[in-house]
Recover the amino acids of this structure.
């Protein structure tokens, strides 16, 4: 639905809160730079605030609660589910860049939430360690955003999602109280919000079947609140991870690290059918590979716009499989076993690489299409609205086949790729926004894929979170008891609605397509802001501080 107002209008706030030391902007250009993220949403915030430290964030929280306004936490803005885009005060936390020396003996590091995952991993590798959770956005996604969404990445097959790697979180709760919440330590129940959350979890534990709070067999989950893992471990950290800024502002995280791999090797495997590749991916995951990525024919066609990929035109799908071992000999044995497995599933061609340079060259293909997809305007727009589904591994071939059938049924091109070993696919429909009734087609496609995901026992959000995009859709994959439990958690942590309202728990009459930036009828942004946003998108410069870009321009 296009936005139905004449102008963007002025911001609602005249000046920064008393004592706030960070940037606070209400001018149209500054607000416009935060009207979009990497996903499909466009919505003008009422103001932009960039705190300089935890105390600044706490002051902002107290001000917002007393003023009756709401805060939308944001890192680099690279999230896909519109959790960091909305009509309230956007809080840019990307300037919280403190990074402690790595504690080598404990294998831990403390990072401000604005530090990128790539920077954390580089600091760890300098002392022989690494941070194993690695989204494809590693160069620009922040560890705060990763913690907020329970992010994952290509190597979640071996290392899982963000949640188990977060040792502690420095959090600002709804009244401005600040506390470190750490694993194995008592909950700081002297803070009212924490006391309410503890009480809510006790009530949920006594009245809601545990089985209703998770999707059985699904390997990755960033939909809903982490009630099930929190009940299992008794740690508040597990509830906060994946809460998408709806229970607290995060200002720093303590992360666990592991030693660097002794050796790795990568296979690039082509298949004549997408179904064979999907089935092989599930087998590879069960065999313990560290990564298994799927690229379908449409993805390969798009990637070839950037140059020859070297992939046969007869290939309907490609798997990129990474194995890891203590030595090159371990990897060589592992590779030989995986080659046999791939051949047994009908692989046409298998290439292998065991040097860092050769592996990097193979993995370049995985990252080739995204920048090209974003440049298909004006007729075809890559619209990521069914891009995070995850199902039990034995249902993955059926899921991929069902998505393809839905795209075909609604006469829509779509690129399918993602973490096939986890049975987790990213789908980018390519939509002609000039076509008659395109919004109706998109809506039908969305609901068809939601129904498919539910029928297969899956989740709508494997690693990107619910945001505002999926919050109105949760009734398709979560039962009444789970949704009531999630609402109870939100009410306990944020009874006044100051923290990211409409994210995770949908507001009344919310719908997924209320603020599409691709809509030809969407309100235009100021030309300078539009140019800067398209430059960020083209160069994938999400980690650049937007107010600096504006001032430099």
């Amino acid at each position: 639905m296009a936005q139905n107002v004449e102008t963007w209008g002025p911001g609602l706030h005249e000046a920064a809160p008393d004592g706030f030391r960070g940037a606070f902007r209400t001018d149209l250009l500054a607000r416009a730079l935060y009207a979009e993220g990497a996903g499909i949403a466009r919505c003008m915030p009422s103001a932009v605030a960039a705190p300089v430290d935890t105390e600044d964030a706490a002051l902002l929280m107290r001000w917002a609660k007393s003023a009756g306004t709401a805060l939308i936490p944001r890192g680099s803005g690279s999230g896909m589910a519109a959790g960091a885009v909305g009509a309230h005060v956007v809080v840019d936390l990307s300037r919280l860049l403190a990074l402690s020396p790595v504690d080598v003996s404990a294998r831990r590091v403390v990072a401000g939430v604005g530090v990128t995952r790539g920077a954390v991993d580089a600091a760890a590798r300098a002392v022989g360690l690494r941070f194993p959770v690695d989204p494809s956005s590693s160069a620009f996604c922040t560890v705060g955003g990763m913690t907020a969404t329970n992010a994952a990445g290509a190597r979640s097959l071996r290392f899982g999602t963000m949640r188990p790697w977060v040792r502690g979180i420095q959090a600002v709760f709804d009244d401005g109280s600040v506390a470190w919440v750490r694993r194995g330590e008592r909950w700081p129940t002297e803070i009212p919000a924490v006391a309410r959350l503890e009480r809510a979890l006790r009530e949920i534990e006594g009245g809601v079947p545990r089985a209703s709070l998770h999707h059985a067999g699904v390997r990755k989950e960033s939909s809903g609140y982490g009630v099930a893992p929190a009940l299992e471990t008794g740690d508040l950290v597990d509830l906060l991870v994946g809460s998408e800024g709806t229970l607290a502002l995060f200002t720093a995280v303590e992360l666990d690290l592991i030693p660097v791999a002794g050796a790795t090797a990568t296979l690039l495997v082509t298949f004549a059918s997408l179904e064979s590749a999907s089935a092989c991916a599930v087998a590879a995951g069960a065999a313990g590979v560290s990564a298994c990525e799927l690229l379908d024919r449409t993805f390969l066609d798009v990637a070839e716009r950037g140059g020859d990929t070297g992939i046969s035109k007869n290939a309907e799908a490609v798997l990129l499989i990474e194995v890891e071992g203590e030595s090159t000999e371990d990897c060589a044995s592992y590779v030989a076993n995986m080659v046999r497995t791939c051949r047994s599933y009908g692989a046409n061609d298998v290439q292998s690489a065991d040097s860092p340079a050769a592996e990097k060259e193979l993995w370049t293909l995985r990252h080739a299409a995204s920048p090209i997809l974003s440049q298909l305007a004006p007729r075809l727009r890559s619209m990521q609205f069914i891009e995070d589904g995850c199902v039990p591994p034995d249902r993955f071939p059926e899921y991929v086949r069902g998505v393809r059938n839905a795209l075909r049924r609604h006469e829509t091109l779509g690129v399918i790729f993602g973490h096939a070993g986890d049975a987790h696919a990213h789908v980018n429909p390519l939509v002609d926004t000039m076509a008659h009734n395109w919004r109706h087609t998109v809506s039908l496609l969305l609901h068809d894929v939601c129904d498919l995901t539910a029928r297969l026992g899956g989740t709508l959000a494997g690693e990107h979170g619910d945001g505002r995009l999926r919050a109105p859709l949760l009734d398709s994959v979560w039962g009444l008891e789970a949704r009531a439990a999630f609402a109870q958690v939100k009410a306990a942590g944020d009874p006044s609605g100051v923290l990211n309202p409409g994210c995770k728990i949908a507001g009344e009459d919310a719908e997924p397509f209320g603020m599409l930036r691709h809509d030809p009828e969407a309100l235009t942004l100021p030309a300078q802001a539009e140019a800067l946003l398209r430059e960020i998108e083209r160069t994938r410069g999400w980690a650049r501080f937007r107010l600096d870009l504006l001032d430099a321009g």
Remarks:
- The longest strand covers residues 263-271.
- The CA atoms of residues 11 and 46 lie 5 Å apart.
- The longest helix spans residues 438-455.
